[in-house]
Amino acid sequence: MGRKLLLEKAHVENIRSYDVYRKEGGYRSVEKALKTLSPDQVTEEVKKSGLRGRGGAGFPTGMKWSFLAKPEGVPRYLVVNADESEPGTFKDRYLMEFIPHLLIEGMIVSSYALGSNNSYIYIRGEYAWITHILEQAIEEARQNGWLGKNILGTGFDCDIFVQRGAGAYICGEETALLESLEGKRGNPRIKPPFPAVKGLWGCPTVVNNVETIAALVPIINEGGEEYAKIGIGKSTGTKLISACGNINKPGVYEIDMTISVEEFIYSDEYCGGIPKGRKLKACIPGGSSVPILPANLLLKTAKGETRMMTYESLADGGFATGSMMGSGGFIVMDDSQCVVRHTYTLARFYRHESCGQCSPCREGTGWMEKILWNIETGKGKMSDIDLLWDIQRKIEGNTICPLGDAAAWPVAAAIRHFRDEFEWHVTNPQEAQQRNYGLAHYADALAVPVA
Amino acid sequence: MNSQFSEAQLQEVKRLTSRYPEGRQKSALIPVLHLAQNTFGGWLSKEVMDYVAGLLSIKPIEVYEVASFYTMFNLQPVGKHLLEVCQTGPCMLNGSESIIDYIYEKLGIRPGETTADGLFTLKTVECLGACGYAPMLQLGEHYREHLTKEKIDALIESCKSNRANA
What we know:
The complex is a heterodimer of chains A (451) and B (166). Chain A has helices spanning 18-23, 28-36, 39-49, 61-66, 91-98, 100-114, 128-143, 174-181, 210-214, 216-222, 224-228, 261-266, 295-299, 311-314, 318-321, 339-353, 359-376, 382-395, 403-427, 429-434, and strands at residues 77-82, 118-123, 148-151, 156-164, 205-209, 231-232, 235-236, 238-245, 251-256, 280-284, 293-294, 329-334. Chain A is an alpha/beta fold and 451 residues long. Chain A has a five-stranded mixed β-sheet with strand order 3-4-2-1-5. Chain A has a five-stranded mixed β-sheet with strand order 9-8-12-10-11. In chain A, strands 6-7 form a two-stranded antiparallel ribbon. By secondary structure, chain B is α+β, with helices and mostly antiparallel strands. The chains are: A alpha/beta (451), B alpha+beta (166).
């Protein structure tokens, strides 16, 4: 049984209410931080913890905070990114829905460290009911003296507001999020300047993921060094994984980063294996934009080592034979699924979500979608596969924001590892309408799963 | 249609704009558009958008460009009940396509279409963050998850009986 730092209390009855949350030890980190630590000391604890951004990029949080400019007389802002939209990812929703005070508590501590007196939660518009849950939690925190003026008599003022978006994946990109929060289209900004220097309304701003900010609570309570003892190497602490697709127990799991991918998929503590006696075919381990891996490369690295649920191990082998931890959106496909069709839905997703600023992304995503649809529906040519490869290469790295990369990678990885399945669609167009390709050669190298 | 907020709604607009620094009231645009869409029949007409522009002291074009960017804002009338079915990868793996087909079988509408009685509009959407509870759809402010044919039947029935009660 792994350690749980964020969701340990998520199943306590009525933990959503302030009274229960407080009785279970809630808001201790605010007392500790505001009364015994300076803002810089809080940042130091975050650096010691080794915490890495939980939104997808995995950038060290303490370092990101240290970049925040602090000019005299200019307000600074903390903005929490709750625009969870990466296909396969639904962990922040779980945290906010079931234990909202954990986010509020982490935000107060973070706001203190960063010197933010007005902090915002930008939540995706579809999570309407969670907006109400958060606003209720904020109101309770305010009534109990954790928000407002002169918190705990320390002279620190802080307020938190929830802002709903309106359906745009791009607003998960931090500068698009800030544009949206300013009441504009979610078009990413050209960087530099980075938000740490010029962010919300031109002021220095830190944008962090929900899970990242929630992790401040155990980091302050237990100390950064204690937090860093959990996990392996630079993958410290715990990570929320949202598991979905063809597994027996889809849901949100908090793992300490010491378990193998195989254990995560087959153990009853986590995904509980593949339903209906089917076999594992492929998996996208970190949200739809990270490379898909066939079962053999998923469970073991190209070097033959057991692949672990850590940032480093999931990325082992680079994009040639590895993938990424990403947002922790873990999508499992069984042997009845079609990689071409699945990739098509992702290409459609990215075409729909492209903001349209950069030509390679605006035009390329639509082009890839159309070609993939042709291949999937038996109208593809062999040269289309090379064309797809060519298009994704020309999108990657050529756009203002990472959405272009996010759109290119799934197509690239699908062709890299499943080219024979694409070719089979072209050479057997009629058969491909009747049945799916199946496991084929990926099964050969499969380890016998632990039950 | 009379596109004016009630006194209580105007208070809500005031509360929303008070959350930002002086002169940054435009930041309230998306929340106010949600309020407007909920109030004025589930979509944003030009008249409504112009009204919102006036409330926030911004140009109408600033409202149009935002309203047309975000998927949740409808710029055309929709049925009383908007069924938004997620169709992205993880939902597809769990049968979202058969849910869309079944709704067609029940109501005779394809994505983008509205039933003749104006009760239902079907819309396909991209990932709503419910991948572990697929297939799913959004109806109003709530998600309906782990969908089956039986659940669709019940959902459609309850929408219809709401009308009877109204």
